[in-house]
Write a structure and sequence with these properties.
Layout: E1 4-7, H1 17-29, H2 33-48, H3 54-64, H4 71-80, H5 86-97, E2 101-106, H6 113-120, E3 128-131, H7 132-135, H8 142-152, E4 159-163, H9 166-175, E5 178-181, H10 185-194
Parallel strand pairs: 1-2, 1-4, 2-3, 4-5
Helix pairs in contact: 1-2, 1-4, 2-3
Length: about 200
Amino acid sequence: MVTTIISDMGGVYLNRGIWLFWDYLNEKYGIPVEKAKLVFLKNYKQFFSGFITEEVFWANLLTEISLKEDWKELRKTLLDFFEVNPEISDFYKKLRAKGFKLVLLADQAKEWWPELDKKLNISSNFDFVVISALVGLHKPNPDIYLHALKISKSTPEESVFIDDIDYNLTPAKDLGMKTILFENSQHAISEFELLGINRQ
C-alpha cells in the first residue's frame, strides 16, 4: 500500500527554469543552447552538492561560455524563471489532505533554495524536504533516496518516486520503490491513478 510520495522539484513540482535560462542566454547573448546546457551540466552537480561555492560555479560557467556579465544579475534572471506547476501542486495538496506523506527530493543549491522557497512557498506544501546541497548528496546517488525514506519513516515498498529524468528513477526502482517518469502533468496524474492513488 502506497503511503508516501517522493517528488522531484525542478521539472515536476516546478517548471524547468534552468532550461528557460539556457534559452535566455541564447536569445540575449547568442550562446547556443547546447553549449550553455553542456557547461551548466558540467558544473552544477558539484554546486548542487555543496562542494563548490556559488561564486565558483558562476565563474566557471561564465568563463566557459565566454560571457562577461554580473553573475548576480544572471542569478536573479535564472531564479525568476521558476514557477510552480499548478496542476501538480493542486494534485499533491489533495493527496496530502487524504493522508499521504509528501517528500520533496531536490537537486538544488543551498544558496538558491531559500529564495525559491520564499518566493514560491514550496516547503509548506510538503511534510519533508531533502535538498541535495544541504545533505551533501545528489541524485542518482542511492544514499539520498535512503535519506528521504529515513526522515519520512517510509519503506521503499510503500513509496512512489517521481522525476522527469529517467536515470534518476533507477536507484529508486533498485531500492524497491514504484516510480513515475514525469512527461506532463496529466500523464503523471494518470500514472498515480494506475497505482491506486487518485484525487477523489
